[in-house]
Write a structure and sequence with these properties.
There is one protein chain. The protein is an alpha/beta fold. The protein folds into four domains: about 5-110, Conserved hypothetical protein from pyrococcus furiosus pfu- 392566-001, ParB domain, CATH 3.90.1530.30; about 115-190, no CATH class; about 195-250, no CATH class; about 255-290, no CATH class. It is built from 14 helices and five strands. The chain has helices at about 5-15, 40-55, 75-85, 100-110, 115-130, 135-150, 160-175, 180-185, 195-200, 205-215, 220-230, 235-250, 255-265, 275-290; strands at about 20-25, 30, 60-65, 70-75, 90-95. The chain has a five-stranded mixed β-sheet. Keywords: Plasmid.
């Protein structure tokens, strides 16, 4: 088993260990991680709890140069402690390298219940990328090849490989879903339009609603349906409305709208003189008829 996976398995035990030290908040440095936003109300609630009871779970940190410590896990507690007016917090100091620290940070965030589906998807991909030594895009490609091979669409050349075994083990460690479910339900979130991505990250719609709305290509119609979904429209009713929207998108455009569209692109000066005179005559007749 790789060192990364060993650290992942030991993360829960590390988090439950009694604090080995305390650190001044000014000595702590957050690290980049999949959690992109912290809800203000949630932080305020945690800060109130910390004022009353203190920081109950120590932060996991690793030493840096100059007497600083990088927060490997526990940035939310760090931010809430700042809001609560604390000057120091309990910590567990880990002697880990950058690769292991990244894996632990990703794993800790993926275990949080309030990590939204889009951020969770990126976190899983980043964890797989770290373990496999690949880019996020290469991991997505590998997962798609695994799916296609499992469905019998391509010759067997991926499943059973050491890379796939690592993928399967990571999903077992996470314990949230299988890699098959991840490919089917989560990878499509990567191609969401910006309005759906923002709504999903804000927690105003579930990921199932986002995947339904993604099917609607008409921006104005999708935005209208998005507002209904935010207001509490059920997934069943949303699916029905999306089906109707898709029918309208697939229906051929009425002939007169096609004529109008062509007229907006028409360059009379570019037409041969005889054809131009005939078109101008018809347009004048149409103008008189509509007047």
């Amino acid at each position: 088993m790789s060192a990364i996976r060993a650290y992942l398995k030991g993360l829960v035990e590390e988090a439950k260990r009694p604090a080995s030290s305390v650190a001044l908040l000014g000595e702590l440095v957050p690290r980049p991680q999949p959690r992109r936003r912290f809800e203000e109300a949630s932080l305020q609630a945690l800060a109130e709890s910390i004022r009353a009871h203190g920081v109950l779970e120590p932060l996991l940190v690793r030493p840096l140069e100059g007497g600083k410590y990088e927060i490997v896990a526990g940035e939310r507690r760090y931010r809430a402690a700042q809001m609560a007016g604390l000057t120091e917090v309990p910590v567990v100091v880990l002697e880990v390298d950058e690769k292991a620290a990244s894996a632990i940070a990703l794993m800790e965030n993926l275990q949080r219940e309030d990590l939204n589906p889009y951020e969770e998807t990126l976190g899983v991909l980043d964890l797989l990328a770290l373990e496999l030594g690949k880019s996020r895009e290469e991991v997505v490609s590998l997962l798609h090849r695994m799916r296609d091979e499992a469905r019998g669409k391509v010759p067997q050349n991926v499943l059973g490989s050491p890379e796939v075994q690592k993928v399967e083990e990571i999903f077992r460690l996470l314990g949230r879903m299988s890699w098959q479910s991840f490919v089917q339900a989560r990878l499509p979130l990567l191609g969401l339009p910006e309005d759906l991505k923002e709504a999903l990250e804000a927690g105003s719609i579930p990921y199932t609603a986002a995947l339904e709305l993604k099917k609607v290509k008409d921006d104005a119609l999708r935005r209208a349906l998005l507002e209904e979904a935010k207001a509490g429209l059920s997934l069943r009713d949303l699916k029905a409305k999306v089906r109707e929207a898709l029918k309208r998108e697939e229906a051929p455009r009425p002939w007169y709208r096609e004529v109008a569209a062509r007229l907006t692109r028409l360059d009379l000066e570019a037409l041969p003189s005889e054809k131009r005179r005939a078109v101008e005559k018809k347009l004048k007749e149409l103008l008189e008829l509509l007047a």
